[in-house]
Amino acid sequence: MKKKLFASLLLCALLLSACGGTETLTQPTSAPQDIPSPAAETDAPDPYAEPAAEEPAFDFAQLEGWVFHFSSGAGGWWTELKIAAGGSFTGHFQDSEMGDITDEHPSGVLITSDFEGQFTQPEPVNDYTYSFRIEDIRYPQGDRQEIIAGTLYEYTPSAYGLDGAEELLLYLPGAPVAELPEMYLNWVRGDFMLYEEGVTELPGYGLYNVQEENGFSSHDYGEEFPEDTQAAFDPALALELAIDEAQVEAMPLEEQLSQAATQADMNEAAAAIYQVWDGALNRFWQTLKENLPEEEIQALTQDQLAWIAEKEAAVQAEAGNGGSMASLSASTVATNYTKDRMNALLDYFRENS
Questions:
Q1: What's the pTM value of the predicted model, to 2 decimals?
Q2: Distances (CA, A) of 310 to 117, 304, 306
């Protein structure tokens, strides 16, 4: 038994001696220095790989087809704004005081302005916000008054929503609602349907006047034509849409007129209908100016001035007949003239564009 144990120990000693002794078993092994580890291969840049494309910066051209709205929500006053490539903009502001009446303007007061100007180039604030300022703003109608069909028109060099702006912020679609200013959200919740459950991102572009805390929502007119969104950018189609929108806006007023119990109520409804169409004509005219050559606009302007004189003469003649229905009749004449003019201008644009 002892011989077998001695033989086993001798065999183990021989085997250990053949392997270089016991010290070699305790030394750590290391990877050869000239063979890169898998981690090194992963981190090393590929000299043949193309550089990753940078995200394109926001450009005002992306707002083509979008219209910004700032309003009371009840239709008492509103401002509309369109921004073109390069940052130029046009818009319309309108307010009314139907209870402010006199013998000279029994149909109330309309405060209004058309405006145009230039924004500075947008600067990024974060992934969904850009900042810019108003570089220039003009009011072609000036600061004046005139009475048309019993309504006092007060043209004012003002654009509520943009007035007092030192910095404007543009929020991109997809901006997280939870990170937007509460004062901005207070203006646009209804328009953007932010009360709906599960709405966590802005569905359109947002415009915020930081100093005055005024907020614009927006609407893409391309959504009106899902079968061909490019049609929304056709000026002729935009003019047709302006007529359609005026008809829709005037419908409840026409219903109000048909159900009016007193002559005063009828006069007020008829005057409001005319204001809808007159405001639509102003926006209609702005679209023509943006899409016709300057020489054509100059010639068309002379024709427009002649039409205005003709319309006012017809209105004054109707109002001059006197009687309790004079104001109603004058407003109706003015409305019919305006509708006919918009259709005539649309025909002209189709023939000459």
A1: 0.52
A2: 31, 10, 6
Which two tokens mark 3? Answer: 């011989």
Read off the pLDDT of residues 183-214 as tens digits, 9 standing for 90 and up: 999 898 877 888 777 889 999 999 999 999 99
**Do 148 and 186 form a contact (C-beta atoms < 8 A)?**
no
d(CA 8, CA 57) in angstroms, rounded, equals 81
Number of domains in the chain: 2
- Residue finishing a domain among 169, 204, 227: 227
Domain residue limits at 223: 58-227
Which residue blocks in the chain are alpha helix, DSSP H? 2-18, 38-43, 182-188, 235-258, 263-291, 294-319, 326-352
Q: What are phi and psi of 44, to 5 degrees?
A: -70, 135
C-alpha triplet 212, 215, 217: angle, nearest 5°: 165
**Separation between Cα atoms, residue 153 and residue 318, nearest integer Å:** 19
DSSP 257-316: HHT--SHHHHHHHHHHHHHHHHHHHHHHHHHHHHHS-HHHHHHHHHHHHHHHHHHHHHHH
